[in-house]
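Practice problem. Given the sequence and the SMILES for adenosine-5'-diphosphate, write out the predicted structure.
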Amino acid sequence: MTDARIRLVVLYGGRSAEHDVSCVSARHVLAAADPDRYEVVPVGITREGRWVLGTQAARLLAAPGSALPDRLEAAGEPVEILPVLHGSAPTPHAGAPTTPPDTATTVVFPVLHGPLGEDGTIQGLLELAEVPYVGAGVLASAVCMDKAATKVHLAHAGLPLVRHVTVTIDDHVDRDRAVRTIGDTLGFPVFVKPANMGSSVGVSKVDGPEGLAAALDLAASYDRRVVVEESARGREIEVAVLGNDDDVRASLPGEIVPGADFYDYSDKYDDGADLLVPAPLDDDEIDAVRELAVAAYRACGVEGLARVDFFYEDGRSGHGTRGWLVNEINTMPGFTPISMYPKLWAVSGLEYPALVDRLVELALERHARQLRHRRTDH
Ligand SMILES: Nc1ncnc2c1ncn2[C@@H]1O[C@H](COP(=O)(O)OP(=O)(O)O)[C@@H](O)[C@H]1O
Ligand SMILES: [Mg+2]
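Answer key:
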């Protein structure tokens, strides 16, 4: 009997600061994938970048009450990551035992967050392997991982943003001049961030010129391009977006109420912040932010899924009144039970297992569409 199930390769772990989050996300994706529809193959990536077939992890998962190890070290045998192109498998020589062709449809779900996972690099490898994968393609992943590039795309589409400057910090930069320019252009406080990062890593809030040079250096230790933004004074609202092309849907919005001065790393992962799902907003506000979320998604060419994050200066808190400002787009948002993305879909009528099904469908749809375009010379 042939197995008509889809082989779902869940790639998890990874080399970024979000390794642990990815492991927790993957555990829940694995648990939610319907075994009648999917043959799930977990593949872990250690912090050092070693790929391991998660057979041990899968076995642990199958036993009742157990969990995947949060760390992947020693989790299984190494995996070759050379791409296997469709139809180009070596032909067995005459007389060699033949194995039946492997006809299972494979879809890769890269549940990887941050650099070297969510930034187009893994997506590039999967393109080379010609395998369908969940989420945004190479360009959109790279654009959304880079906060400076995201802003260029969003601004080009006329979307509202905080005022900002992008500086390249290298040995030739006159730091004093950079500090003066930023102060003159934006005033204080400002947020200083590496262009290419996530999870609030390297992000600082700076209240005056004296703290700026250190914040620039900290951000520049992650990426030579640094984005400096004026401080938004509103609420933090997030929208889950799902779809390809002209069939893109936005969830109800949710709200982050940071426990700390801002939504920093410990707030995100040690449960410091409160998530209000759905966000307390009126119908007009909800319509407006959903529309903006889809527009931002399209402006950056995203397909599959993304969480679009906003600041909302509604004036009610006695601060600014500029309304909606797009902050950033995350093309592989967290999938843990306390993560905003699945929570937003659940409250919008799409439960976690159905969300996984839809993501796989979107991956296959996008791949089939790509095959209609010639990318090689034959
Ligand atoms: N311009 C800003 N104004 C106000 N708060 C900000 C600003 N930029 C960032 N923050 C705070 O810092 C957090 C992390 O910044 P963000 O740009 O979302 O980076 P990351 O990709 O690391 O999540 C935000 O959730 C918010 O709490
Ligand atoms: Mg963020």
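Check your answer against the key. The first strand starts at residue 6 and ends at 13.
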